[in-house]
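All the exercises in this workshop are built on plain-text protein records. Instead of coordinates, the fold is spelled out as a row of discrete tokens. Once this layout is familiar, the rest of the handout is easier to follow. The record below serves as our worked example for the rest of this section.
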Amino acid sequence: VYVIILPVFGLVSHSLHRGGLFSLYNMLGMVYAMIAIAVVGYFVWAHHMFTVGLDVDTRVYFSSATLLIALPTSIKVFSWMVGLRRMALASSAAWYVVAFLLMFLLGGVTGLVLANSEVDLVMHDSYYVVAHFHYVLSLGAVFGLLNGVLSCHELCSGYRSAAWLLRVQVVLLVWGTTCIFWGMHLSGTLGLPRRVPDAPDGYLGTVVSTTCGILVVLLAVALLLCASLEASLWDTQQLRATTRSTNPGMHNHMLSGMHSLDHATRGQLMLHTCVSTSHRASMHLEE
């Protein structure tokens, strides 16, 4: 699970850095937090097995390790929220970052509930677990990947999708997924087990909510495809036409002076130049 979500963390941080007015907030702390998540993630595997008859000491250890992983995750979430304040909130990337944070926080809160081994004995194999897993991994990964894919699409194709289409799409996607998985949370809390083909009539409301949410999600996916086609076929907002290029004279002078630098300094200078150019281009596009 953590192996899948960690690259998405990097995409979200890159998006905030690319669209922010300043450099990424608490970058060193976020790097250490990601390392801590990757390390601790190796030692929480038994929190899926609380019901197999583990002794009390083992359950206490894995419950504590699962709760401990919330600390570096909180560092990243709060750093992203501060970085979001430095970002142009009117941009489409900011909307996807907000949606990612919303889904990831909702799933993280329910994960803290399931980290308690005694509560997990009651909630295990219910729709509550299904909803928690999809909020954290599926929805968090989907919104982070959509943010990264849209950014790469702009840079690779030279066209950008219409901002209003992307905003409508992300709102519909959040609405649809919330109808699906929040209803599953309620069903799991009321005791509905998973993998059961039929359920009592008391769960009819949550089942209807989930079904309507699926239809809204399908509409959001279709709208995303329309936005991509609209950008590639009919959009006139070309990145190549609106991006400010580097001063040719300064660029040639800098390249000629780089021959006297060592490899490490030359690489750092080229990386700084690429990041600065990308930052200026994104700022100009938001204007």
